[in-house]
Batch of 4 targets.
Target 1
Amino acid sequence: MRSNAVELSEGRIGKFGEKYYAGRPQQVLLRNWLSFKSSAWIAVLSGFFEPVLYLLSFGYGIGELVGNISTPGGDISYAAYIAPGLLATSAMNGAMLDSTWNVFFKLNESRLYKAMLATSLGPLDVALGEIAWALMRGGIYATAFTAVIAGLGLVTSWWALLAIPAAIIVAFGFASFGMAITSFMKSHHQMNFFEIFLLPMFLFSGAFYPLTVFPGWAQAIIKALPLRQAIELVTRAMSGEFGINILVNFTYFLVMICVGLFFTTKRLNALFMK
């Protein structure tokens, strides 16, 4: 039985994808879990409460002024209208927090990935392990937020449970893409790119109002952005709306996942496996 990194690495020789994958992403996942138990749970809690506060302040504060919203399924409260968008945003935030700043620190500050890739782990192991951790965080956010909106009486159908797997797909897409982009960042100033992009995308995503308030050309741009696709995926899953549109949303994130994993793996290989 192989018991050390050298023997494990030698065992990959001649196998398909030997340069990139050792079949051990769970080791990266385990390391993140140990780190989480020590101190990172505080950051997870803070990230969860942000969309809940948006829901309470906008849904019930501004909602008193707005009144009910007309939808194809009938009139609903403003809080119920914004809930799917905030759920998608919650999944995005959970995934992006772990796959951007967390990854940046391990790449450029602690150089943890360099140490990992000096063992039997391959770059795809590291990418899958980190993305799986971000995925778990996004899934926890989505599950907890779904429980909150159910407790507030904003869920009217059992279809709402499908929002959780939909949000996990969203988290997977954002985590993969976020880690891929972060792997090219060299400074803290460059990392500000994410805030510059994510905040306007959130504000103009249509989470708080219909996209019809914008002209046609602006609607087309917003619909092409990942958060809008995420909101549509979660909304359609929650309402049990299955058809070509939700398939388009799903395919969008499948492409994000594949592209993100590909570039993350290639980048880690280029940085540390020379």
Target 2
Amino acid sequence: MILIADSGSTSTNWVLVEHGKSIQSLFTPGINPFYQTPEEIAGEIATLTLNVKPSSVKAIYFYGAGCVADKIEMVKHAIAQSFTQSQIYVESDLVAAARGLLQHEAGIACILGTGSNSCFYDGKNIVSNVSPLGFILGDEGSGAVLGKKFIADCLKNQLPEELKNKFLTTFGLTANDIINHVYRKPFPNRYLAQFTPFLAENMAEPAIYNLIFDSFTDFFVRNVMQYPNFEEYPVSFVGSIAYYFKDILEVVAFELGITLGEIKQSPLEGLVAFHSTL
């Protein structure tokens, strides 16, 4: 059997695969080596052994946010503490998006989840990537940035009073609560992204619709449209933000002359297919 993981900053989805078929799905909190110590990552991985017998897993393919070149060995070592007999492969979540969406075809693969990212994939490798820069400097269109922009508008009195009060009442928040979470507690990106379901429920509000529309426009202009000949390739997406705000994403793409490919909540189904053909 093999174990495949798709890990974002908020959650990690695992699937156990045997003979090319998914036989079990598992979930752990998000794993990101930029924000967590090796010990914290190893602790999260260890919880899997409650449901999976490590000796039965021949190989692990871990795709994760923050798994850049200088973090890969750290993540491998953390996984190996629980899965001592498994071959372990660690790649970025962007490689997961490219393989899961495009398999062996060329195109542009994007992530719109807690964070955002994009790449040009030639069918084998990622050959170009516009740096996402994280939710402070970049991550346009992501859940963290949508949440950041919405809360900033809320606290700066840029929203209709009724909408502002509805938001604060729904979550039982004060300005001090928000500032404390964003500036003094871990994982501010997760905190900000958690408010996107409220945006989805209130998309009929012009202030919310325009915020999402403008943020998706920023994503296309500042990322996708930087790839040479971008208009010649389908642009495909994974991630909860792309999936749940698909209608707005399609409108923005159409207005910019961009051809959309697949939009999936998770790349896991595609990754199972990809690894079954190797």
Target 3
Amino acid sequence: MDKPSFNLFDKFDSILSKDDDITRYSQGDGPVRYMDGSSLNRPITMPAKKLPIALAFAAVAAVIGVLLAVNLLGSTLHAAQRSAASVEENLAREVSLDMPLISSYAGMDAASVKAATDALGLNVYTVSSDEDIAAGKLDMVKMPSDVSVEEGAMYYAQGISNLDAPDAALLLNGMWRLQFDSTKSFNLSIRYADFDSGNVDTAVENAIAAQGFDASTATELDVDDAGNTFRSGTLEAGGATYNWRVSAIGLDAVYDISGLPDTAIYVGVRMTAA
């Protein structure tokens, strides 16, 4: 009877082979499992049968995008058109400036200037406090005749430069601001927007005529360092001599409001003790 053969070298190779398997597939106390990476080798291109569906979705998205853009552009355009129409309507209102003659305040103190202005019966908003007036300072804003003091004060409190063009046109057309300071000497000014004159030279001449100043004795038109076009002169009122000056500059140099007419002018009339 043949005895089974035993090859020591084959047995040793078998043991080594098992050790290699353990080393290759295990780590620590448990086996290492490798993920199937075959899916990563698939092509990333879209299957041909799904391409028409994707193109259809893309076309729908493009159409929606175009419609939204057209709607947005149309809304913006219509808003601009409505704003321009509102500006034109507010500037076409029949409102009177009702500006007092600055010379009529000659010799007055702040309280007297306020009382005289209140007596005109206009829609006037007094910015100054009683303490300011007692100290010789006065700030008053005359609102347009069709704007209440309460509504005008609300707009004014926002800051005119912060208003949009329609609201600014509503407030500025027919509004003027009177400021008075007698802490050092008599100093009174009235400022307003002029939407009718069309240019600074005409605005200055119209203001001189409205105030009744003697243009024949006034200086010629000139431009100061700030860009204001002006004329100046003297007047006698209340037994005293005063200097007057009328200046004008583009309204856009004072208020940064898009949508107001380029021909709008900001006019200032000042009277000071000589």
Target 4
Amino acid sequence: MENKKKKLIIGLILIIILGAIVFYLTGHLTKTTICKGTLDMITDEEVEVISSDDKVKETKTKVIYDYTDYVSESYPISYYKDYIKNSNTFYKNVKGVKTSLKVEGNKIIYEVDIQYSQDYMKDLVEAGLVSTNGSYKDKVYLNVGVYRYLAIKMIRPYGGNKLQGNVKLDTQYGAYKENEGSGNNKYQILDGEETPGSPEVYYYDLQIENAVGNGTNKPFHTFSQTEEEEIRTFQFVMADFKEANGSNTEYTVYWVRTFKTLDDLKAFVEQEDKN
């Protein structure tokens, strides 16, 4: 009887020890979580999150762009590849980040591997790839004195060979030229005219006086040209698109960038057209 008790006690101790070992190993095992989703009509994304001790160690992101319906003689797959490459230059030379870009038929596959090591954290934060609770600089600033022009290349919704809806540049101070028609479609067109269904480059001069606001319930605001200015809201608003036969209520955005001069903007677009 005494031997049975001893064996039982030893068995319980072994179970407790084994349980502690399993608990410890489970808490320190590397875990992989895979998330998949469709971002828009041409873009699918898969993110592999690798974690340990409840901390993310690495993310592997694969983005698949399917341009089957958009490839043509005027816009070959190489055009879209160069666009994606040029749109993601902010990853270049960031410590802890590896990227790859390849073409498979009419699809472009873009992969980004990010290592969240403490050695790389400062670089990741400064590159805008990681947000923080304030231990690093995580605010967004405009430097209108240097980067005067904001430009966007896009295809606006259209129907019946006419453009549809309204496009507005909105900020925490109000919309761009909001005192003129609520700020709708107050952009300038790089080539001077719009063709429904075609990509156009629209730009805004951020150095003009009273650039945003309406002067009544939203006081006018002129962006500083001598120092950086914190910006909390800076967005494009696409609205008032009507569903109708033959109408295209979707819009395609190719890129959004700032430029020091109009010559810089024109040179960028000319180089893009050559690629």
